[in-house]
Design goal:
The protein is mainly alpha-helical. It is built from six helices and five strands. The strands form two sheets. A three-stranded mixed beta sheet has the order 3-2-5. Helix 2 (about 50-60) crosses helix 6 and helix 3 runs antiparallel to helix 4. It is globular and about 50 Å long.
Length: about 140
């Protein structure tokens, strides 16, 4: 986003839910101190976003008019395999791999958050826009942006 370009996979629109680390930490404390937790509780902002919306909000947070560039899903898969192979050959870790490509191309990353609210009163308080703005501010303070 800081360079003015944000890649997005082609194909169907994909939705995902995210969580700010402060909300996640609060959820862990609430769950750990609850009288009873019933089964698995998913922790996320209850609202879901399209990848396109996430990309637009990232660009907004860094103060750029980033252009969304559609990348064919096949290219993403190939890039993951190539990056993983180069990583193995060089012995240097990579943040992108075939697994990351599969995650990016998944139909969606959605969960049901109501049980966490019922079991221990957790509701995410930090919406995506605010979380990205705080993250961008921190990145600037560290000299990363």
């Amino acid at each position: 986003a800081n360079r003015g370009v944000l890649p997005l996979p082609t194909g169907p629109e994909r939705r995902l839910q995210l969580i700010h680390v402060s909300d996640l930490a609060r959820a862990v404390v609430l769950a750990a101190t609850a009288d009873k937790v019933n089964g698995v509780n998913h922790i996320a902002e209850s609202r879901s976003y399209l990848w396109r919306e996430v990309a637009e909000r990232v660009a907004q947070a860094v103060g750029k008019n980033a252009r969304l560039v559609r990348v064919p899903a096949a290219f993403i898969s190939i890039a993951g395999a190539v990056t993983e192979g180069v990583s193995r050959l060089t012995g240097r870790p990579s943040i992108f791999s075939r697994d990351k490509a599969r995650e990016l191309l998944a139909p969606g990353w959605l969960c049901e958050t109501r049980r966490a609210e019922q079991d221990f009163g957790f509701v995410a308080e930090i919406p995506l826009d605010r979380g990205f703005a705080e993250t961008a501010k921190w990145y600037r303070a560290q000299g990363w942006l």
